[in-house]
Sequence to fold (148 residues):
Amino acid sequence: MSRFNKHKEKPRQFKSNGERFAVGGLEEMLCHAKWQFHRYLEDVINDPHKPNPLEVAQEPEFRKLLKEHGLIELTQSQIFFKAQKYSDRLAKGEEPYSDKFHPPGTWEESDLAPVSVLFNRETGDWMQLPTVLDECVTSTQQQQQQQQ
Fold:
């Protein structure tokens, strides 16, 4: 008994944020571009004159798709307006833009140990040291204590 596949004539698709995209095509690239555009909007709040990284796209069909979705060929004032709206939504507690390929990340997920950086104001030299948390003492600090 064979199963009937009613979608065999259609290209493979995936669903992200309520929209369907063709796998491996320009639409999949659009999905990544939307995520990149939202990261760009976050940066625009701090640097209103930052150029749109999506403007460098050369492929005519992809540029057409980006333009249809309002991601390119915008004035700086239009971009800043979009950035302010997005920033306002984030300030109200909305999650940052994410999709199937780019899940939301948080600072709490980092497993990197914190560090301290010491600067010599006279020479401009700097040195990175591990930060000691709680009662933990690094081996270098233990050696220094034993020498005293």
In short: The chain has a mean pLDDT of 78. The chain has two domains: 13-107, 112-147. Residues 112-147 form one domain.
